[in-house]
Amino acid sequence: MVAKAHPSAFSNGHPACEDCGVRSIAVCAAAGVELLPRLTALATGRRIDAGQTLFQEGDVADEVFTLTEGMLKLYKLMSDGRRQIVGFLVPGDFLGLAFGRSYVYSAEAVVPTTVCRFRRPQFLDMLEDCPAMEKEILGRTSTELAAAQEQMLLLGRKTARERVASFIVSLARRSKIEHEGSLPLPMSRSDIADYLGLTIETVSRTFTLLRKEKLIELPDKHVVEIKKRAELEQVAGF
Amino acid sequence: MVAKAHPSAFSNGHPACEDCGVRSIAVCAAAGVELLPRLTALATGRRIDAGQTLFQEGDVADEVFTLTEGMLKLYKLMSDGRRQIVGFLVPGDFLGLAFGRSYVYSAEAVVPTTVCRFRRPQFLDMLEDCPAMEKEILGRTSTELAAAQEQMLLLGRKTARERVASFIVSLARRSKIEHEGSLPLPMSRSDIADYLGLTIETVSRTFTLLRKEKLIELPDKHVVEIKKRAELEQVAGF
DNA sequence: CACCGACATTGACCCAGATCAACATCACAC
DNA sequence: GTGTGATGTTGATCTGGGTCAATGTCGGTG
Fold first, then answer.
1. I need a surface site. Which of A133, B13, B14, B81 has the fewest CB within 10 A?
2. What confidence category does residue B211 fall into, taking pLDDT thresholds of 50, 70 and 90?
3. How far away is chain B from the Cα of A227, in angstroms, using its nearest Cα?
4. Cα(B203)–Cα(A43) distance, rounded to whole angstroms?
5. Cβ contact A210 with chain C strand, < 7 A
């Protein structure tokens, strides 16, 4: 018997899926209640310190994950160290389903992070029995593809000012911030630069510029306060 | 009865799926033989002249397509006319399954092109009855996402020389050209520029540069001949 | 055939953002 | 408290690729 001061947890230190904080927004939401015990049995938790990598580009892709807490950055490296961050993941996001032998990007925690891990073969087996979950994954992959295409427009054609404005507006949308308001910025300037195809200096200067234009405020390195949402969206080119 | 001098064709001018030239490499390959008549009944053909658009970003996404002949470019436009091409499609490729109300990019023929068209609701109904096809679409979407992420690295971090080299190598791989050899380049310099996040002048200069470096030859505006494949891959950063 | 318009190449110059460098800020260890 | 290293900001300068402009190439048309 498990004491219930806290939600029930299994020997692997992972809470049961029924108690999972992100279940309603994760791919698991598509699994019917009858599949929850099976999901729970397959899942193991993992804690990742800030800066620690979950996996690296080229590793054999034998696990898939749901992010339950924190933030991950996904990136690709060139041999000389140039880096492109291809995405930031937030709780509820799913990752790892590479169609191929190995992961096509590295994943590293931006802040202390927890993920829920599944072995790939077992997860795929479960997908067989749960078409709703497969549909959900297809939908998410499609949405991610559309976001990647939007980012291609940003990287290929937007100015530094437009890039930074787009970044802030996109983050705000994902955080469900509708108008003006305060936005956490957990990643470093270097991460932002490598996401936007700029240098840290240009990112810093551009934040300062937007602040001088009174579109944003920067009460702290890791917080942006949106002051003029409409103008910011305008600058972003949305 | 349909005379069989040519493969059987239906009133809509579209050949039956069983006779389709790209069936073995399209999503339709995942449909069992028993589904072919149903596929054929749903499909209609469409011819698109070079330069004509199949659909535009923002149009209601009520159709999906398989490219049967020619080449399409997919692109996003900004209000001031800046353009980012997010992909070139070749026969066998599938497009249009936007997860949302409307298409997120425009599609235009690069050369005279034919597509096979399905109404979305009917196509989705068919997917319900054919999990193999849904899996196939998920696999393709995943692969496309990985390609988009590779392109993000190109757009965010590579030099003009690396971009053009990457472009040539990627095209060669898709055309199954393994080593040295001649490669058709159906799109204009302007299309290449908008795909690589460069200007036409830089694309032109960079082709000339690679030619002077003896990595490629340019016997014609629309042909590249790869002379030193290994060095080209090196420059591309692969 | 000559003419035309679209596309591509090449040259001269310019500028947005990179690079190099100095300094500021802050969390943390001692 | 003071020192130290990581992170961020700001300034000065440089440069890869953009912009502007002239010229070349070629397929189509009368």
1. B81
2. very high
3. 24
4. 50
5. no
Single out the residue of B56, B83, B151 nearest to residue A145, CA to CA: B151
DSSP B26-89: SGGGGS-GGGHHHHHHH-EEEEE-TT-EEE-TTSB--EEEEEEES-EEEEEE-TTS-EEEEEEE
Q: What DSSP element (H or E) covers A214?
A: none
- Amino acid A187 reads M
CB atoms closer than 10 angstroms to residue A89: 21
**CB distance B207 to B164 below 8 Å:** yes
To the nearest 10 degrees (0 to 180), the angle between helices A160-174 and A189-196 is: 110
The Cα B63–Cα B97 span in angstroms is 8
Any CB–CB contact under 8 A between B138 and chain A?
A: yes
- CB half-sphere exposure, A66, CA atoms < 13 A: 25
Q: Looking at chain A, which residue has its C-alpha nearest residue B87?
A: A149
| Strand D bases within 7 angstroms of protein beta carbons | 7-12, 16-21, 26
Taking alpha carbons only, the member of B85, B58, B103, B78 closest to residue A234 is B78
Give the type of residue at A14. Answer: H
What does pLDDT average to over chain A?
92
A172-208: burial string, b at 16+ Cβ within 10 Å, e else: beeeebeeeeebebbbebebbbbbbbbeeebbeebbe
Query: Residue B9 above 80 pLDDT?
Result: no
**Could you check: is the Cβ of residue A62 within 7 Å of any atom of nucleic acid strand C?**
no
Contacts 24+ apart (CB under 8 A), A141-144: A141/A97, A141/B138, A141/B141, A141/B142, A141/B145, A142/B97, A142/B98, A142/B99, A142/B141, A143/B99, A144/A87, A144/B145
pLDDT in tens, B130-171: 999 999 999 999 999 999 999 999 999 999 999 999 999 999
Q: Answer yes or no: are the C-beta atoms of A98 and A139 closer than 8 Å.
A: no
Distance B67 CA to D16 C1' (A): 38
Q: What is the pLDDT of residues A210-232, one digit of tens each?
A: 999 999 999 999 999 999 999 99
pLDDT at A75: 98
- Residue B5: pLDDT band (50, 70, 90) is very low
